[in-house]
Amino acid sequence: MSDRSKVIKATPDGWESISRREYKTEKTNFKSVSRYSLLTDDYPDLNFHTRYFEIEPGGYSSLEMHRHPHSVVILKGAGSVVLDNEIKQVQEHDVIFISPNTIHQFLADTDRELGFLCTVDRYRDKPVIPDDTEISNRITDKKVLKKIRK
After folding, report:
1. For 14-38, what is the mean pLDDT?
2. Given the residues 108, 114, 118, 139, the one annotated as active site
C-alpha cells in the first residue's frame, strides 16, 4: 500500500478522525442536518469530494441548485428527494443522480434518519437558493410545492 493510501475506519458514531459538523452555518433554510467530510481537500489526487450527510427525522437539506452534478447513495433510513417538479421516495441502497441546475432537496420525512453519501466535483460552484420566482417557474406540481421547505 502506498504511503498516501489509507482506510478510514467506521465507528459507531461515524468515522475515525472525521468530525461530525453542522451541515451549513450561513443559512437557516435547512433543519437537523449534519455532515462528515470523508474524502475532500486532504486527498489532492482526487478530482471529487465524498461527503456523508445525515438528516434527523423531520429534518431537511436546503432547497438549492448548482451548475455541477451530484452522485448520491442512500446508506441509512428512508425519506424523499425533490428533483425539480418531482418527489421521489428513497431508501437504503437507492442511487440518485442530480443533474446540473436541478432544484433539489432531501427530506427525512419518515420516522428514521436519512443518511447518504454525496460525491461532487472538487472544483464546483456554490449552491444557489432559488427565489420564489424561480420556484414558481420550475415547480408547478402542487404536491411538490407543499413538500418543499424554504
Report:
1. 87
2. 118
